[in-house]
Amino acid sequence: RHGEGFVRTVGSFDQRSAREWGADLIRPMTLDDLPEVARLGATFHARAGWDEIEYNEADCIASLTRFMETGSFIGLVADDGHIVGMVGGIISPVYFNYSHISGEELFWYVADRAPQMTGIKLLKAMESEARTHGCRSWQMKSLDRLGGARMVRLYERMGYRKSESLFIKEL
Question: Is the Cβ–Cβ distance between 145 and 130 less than 8 Å?
């Protein structure tokens, strides 16, 4: 169990910082958003090459609901009347240094129809929100099928360094 009070709820979304990166488009994810987020997630899943794991919208909604209830989840959406982008991650103490709170991206996806720079705005907003939750570090993933090399360059330009590679195997 995490330390008491180490995470504030997503309702603490920093509106002052939000204006700096386009809060007219970016806002906290709510439970009401989850059906639309799950539909966008289906598009992400199809493009990402997660063939080993079947996508189920109802399960996506149920999982995100549970994540949101834990207080250890940050979710943001880009909303221009419809959800056109989403980013979500889990925050917790690092297992080998309980005083270091870190976050890890679970998903980051922007629809083709989203306004230009929406993805960057979402990532910057996520970093800002993670800081308000006490995170001292944040981890991002890069899927090979979704512009892997291009994403590595983007992450490096934004101050990230490569730390590991992930592999998946069907069991």
Answer: no
